[in-house]
Amino acid sequence: MPLFKTINFSRSVGTTTQILIWKITESLEELLGNVILKEKTQLRLNRMKSEIHQRAFLSVRMLLQEAGFNDFDLHYDEFGKPYLHDGKHISITHSHHFSAIIISDEPVGIDIELQREKIIRIADKFVNKKELHRLKSFDTQDYIRKLTVKWGVKEAIFKIRNEPGISFKDHIQVNLFEIEDKKTTAFLEMEKIKQQFPIYFEEFEGFTLVYAFEN
């Protein structure tokens, strides 16, 4: 059972946050043999056409078990946002052979992404011209790494707010950062909303993990 990494920390007195990362190496059968699913979840799993997605889906249930929960504790609201039965906040992500969850006393969002050149082709879909101009001064690999952080930041914030009409490009801006910083801040500004988010990120095995908190 390859629990890849666990991160524990507290941003303020009385709050706790745990991030768990799973490296998916098991077969579908192995994963199925180690989790108990409620009927609704089993039906959802059966509808998935890709075994890769099925394995990622089940690895998230493995992470829940590592954190002391199970599939019966996990629910989704009318907008598809996950929550836990005990009131703790949870966010879920997976990409290729990694999955991760974050569980906290605070509203949180998490995203994991594979670093790849494809992100350069779609950069103008989620980064404005000013940001792109600044980033293009870096070499190709640093450009990819920074774009991947920015995409992850915007995904993580969207998972927290889940507001209709949010534009990654127009409404979510990420402050300047260096990869070595492993943290930055970002802002969501739209209509009557103006909110700042503390951001943390790290890299491993060609992937970028980003997680965000509400201030």
Summary of the model, kept short:
The chain has 215 residues and is α+β, with helices and mostly antiparallel strands. Helix content is 31%, strand content 33%.
> Roughly how many Å apart are the termini?
35 Å
Q: Helicity, in percent?
A: 25-40%
Return the string of H and E elements. Answer: EEHHHEEEEEHHHHEEEE
Number of strands: 11
Count of DSSP H/I helices = 7
| Major pleated sheet | 5 strands, antiparallel
Per the principal axes of the C-alpha atoms, what is the gross shape?
globular
Task: Estimate the mean pLDDT confidence.
Answer: 94
Low-confidence stretches: none
Radius of gyration: 17 Å
Class computed from helices, strands and strand pairing: alpha+beta
Q: Numbering strands along the chain, what is their spatial order in the largest sheet?
A: 7-11-10-9-8
Work out the strand percent. 25-35%
Supply database-style keywords.
31% helix; 33% strand; 215 residues; 4-stranded antiparallel beta sheet; 5-stranded antiparallel beta sheet; alpha+beta; globular
How does this model look, in words?
This protein is of the alpha+beta class. 31% of the residues lie in helices and 33% in strands. The protein contains seven helices and eleven strands. The protein has helices spanning 28-32, 39-47, 51-66, 118-121, 129-135, 140-161, 168-171, and strands at residues 3-9, 17-23, 74-76, 82-84, 89-95, 98-104, 108-114, 172-174, 183-190, 193-204, 207-213. A five-stranded antiparallel beta sheet has the order 7-11-10-9-8. A four-stranded antiparallel beta sheet has the order 1-2-6-5. It has a two-stranded antiparallel ribbon with strand order 3-4. β10 (193-204) and β11 form a beta hairpin. The N and C termini lie far apart (35 Å). The model has no long low-confidence stretch (mean pLDDT 94).
